[in-house]
Amino acid sequence: MTTIESIEERGYTNSYLADQHADQLARLRTLExxxxxxxxxxxDWLDLPRKPAILDLGAGAGSLAGWLSKQYPGATVTAxxxxxxxxxxxxxxxxxxxxxxxxxxxxASFDVVHARALLCHLSEREHxxxxxxxxxxxxxxxVIEDVSLxxxxxxxxxxxxKVAQAGIxxxxxxxxxxxxxxxxxPGRLSAQGLSNVGHRTFEGRIGDNSPADTFWAATTAQAxxxxxxxxxxxxxxxxxxINLRADPAFSDAALTFVSAWGQVL
Length: 265
Hints:
Rossmann fold; 8 helices; alpha/beta; Methyltransf_11; 7 strands; seven-stranded mixed β-sheet
């Protein structure tokens, strides 16, 4: 079997999820359609000053950062990413090229620090989480949202389980992702000393033509060449999975999205 190391350097920016991929913007748009309403709802729980300073860490294609700039008129919304190509044309935000692994911010810089679908993909996630707490002003909020793929491992369908496990293995080996980490988020925020910790969860399904189904399909299609190269699945598996998703009799839980927040006192 081909190894990860023989293909490319390990890490997000060299993976099939990186922004230079031809289909990445379209895939990120499917992610936004699933998760933006949930992220927006998380901000409803926060007591913010009239003109907050907000950091959207790893802002991706920027839809949430753009929404924040409209939702909080007068706010300073800083959107960061290691690759900012999709953020440059969004009005009302400040764009900063930033590597969450290595780049810092001064302590107490923001009223809110938000990260979505980011820390699960970074092996230094615990260290970054601790640093992000320091970036929040007293009375401010840390909002971490991430995806768990545990539901896809619980399926009774052997084909779906095989493809899901292959995707998790690819993410673990090529990026360093932990696709079960999200389920521990509330406890991890409490362990960081945050107060007023709260969370909400959302179950995303496949086979039902929902936004979550579209996101799952786009991500799996983008992963296809890497999955095949590593021998984690066959082309017959991928073709059969497409047919399974199209079967009106099939629908199953694929992911859990966890929104968690806590206040720095």
